[in-house]
Description:
Blueprint: H1 2-11, H2 18-28, H3 31-38, H4 42-58, E1 61-64, H5 72-75, E2 83-88, E3 97-101, H6 108-123, E4 127-130, H7 136-145, E5 153-156, H8 170-179, E6 181-184, H9 194-207, E7 210-213, H10 221-231, E8 235-238, H11 249-256, E9 261-262, H12 277-296, H13 304-311, H14 315-327, E10 331-334, E11 337-340
Parallel strand pairs: 3-4, 3-7, 4-5, 5-6, 7-8, 8-9
Antiparallel strand pairs: 1-2, 2-6, 10-11
Helix pairs in contact: 1-3, 6-7, 7-8, 9-10, 12-14, 13-14
Amino acid sequence: MSDLFEKLLILRSPGVGPVGYEKLIRQFGSVAAVAAGLRQNTELVDSVMREMDLAQSLGVQFISDDSEYYPVGLKNIKAHPPVISARGNLETLMRPCVGIVGTRHATATGMRFVADLADGFASHGVAVASGMAIGTDTAAHRGALRANGNMQTIAVLGGGVDYIWPAENESLYWEIVERGVVISEMPVGFIPKGSNFVQRNRWIAGIAQKLILSEADLKSGSMRTVDFAIEMGRELWAVPSHPLDARAAGPNSLIKTGVAHLCSGVGDFFNDTKKSPENRQSQTENSDLEDLLLDALGSVPVSESVLAQVVKKSISEIKRGLVILELRGLIKKTDMGYVRI
Length: 341
């Protein structure tokens, strides 16, 4: 605990990030030596102690880069965060990992593709990392959560690990905490700024062994994540799309120049993707349920319980069907229930 406190004391000093931290350790020889000079700053000491107390009350854990739970890929990159905070199942960070990123303004088709891709990886024991933004990130996390198990996805946040952003993804946040893990390098309670998301993108690339780019224009933050992945020597894949759509410019350019492999689906990564008769039957049943739900929805909001009565399915089946339809952009949730778009 003392070692963690000393590391946080350095990292929470004004103007000190991963690069500054490394310089200070080299200059003074050890964490303890640097921290010794900072202990005189009572305001800083009190601030770190409050953060540690808050973290404990929220169930947030700190992970130093000498911990077995610290992501191996992240540890191996230059100027990685010496300490990250985490909320959820830490063992998720020990799994093989793929990063999936793309635009916040994803098409319904793009989101469905990403969700299926993430489901495939998670079903094969590979954690899916993304940034919990709306659009592509949301599809990646929700797709991974469709798979069975409790170590399916990693959300890397730009703010504190307890700061839920965007607000629309509050329910997703808690699902990830329950069945994956949320991580951040920022102090607990920290409200992010624009520059924090750039660094967040770097950590997504660092954690992942592979990075897959879905829809993204050439100047998007996702393309910055691609730059980081290239610098780190990560295996890069891109999902092609229609060339008249600006959201296709990023992935199509990477494929055209040979920087990225063309990603056509989970079959590019695993050899056992042929559906058994049972799986094909299940897939057909899911499609039938989606059609029934769409028929039952219109412009007037309908609750999950009412939908369950109308289509004669369980609440859990209804929820799964609604998530898929949301990802496809065919329905949306309101305060009163679901409506068809």
